[in-house]
Amino acid sequence: MKESDKVIELIKLALKEVYKNDKYLIDNKISERAIVSKFACYFSQMAKDSPFKNFDIDVEYNRQGIKSKIIGEKLVCIDFIVHERGNNNDNLIAIEFKPYWNKNKKAIEKDKQKIKDLCDHTNKYRYKYGFVLTFEKEFEKIIVDLQ
Questions:
Q1: Cβ-proximal residues to 145 (8 Å cutoff; 6+ apart), any chain
Q2: What's the pTM value of the predicted model, to 2 decimals?
Q3: What are φ and ψ of residue 52, in 5° steps?
């Protein structure tokens, strides 16, 4: 199995756990951060038995080392990342999430551009895989595609 397939599989498994155990958060339109934090917990548990077990997993992360993460002139805060803290060479996954009740097209395009910039191998962050995902009403409606 290719590494990208393993990444997508882990994401889907973690999302499935969110929908199985914490759908209340989605059904009641609770904060995106609350849902992402649950996703991070499940992803972290599943990553322990994966090739990504030695990476750090963070939510709402805005640093590169001790400096602020900046693209252009804007501070960047990423909803969910898998990386090695303080090391630009091992930035693995960056995900921006949106809940189904907040599908603002302008915000989604902004997130897509952020992920594209973070995965651009000519910049200093060089994330290997990037995603923009929506917490849909039902798990089966989620599309997990690389950006």
A1: 131
A2: 0.92
A3: -100, 15
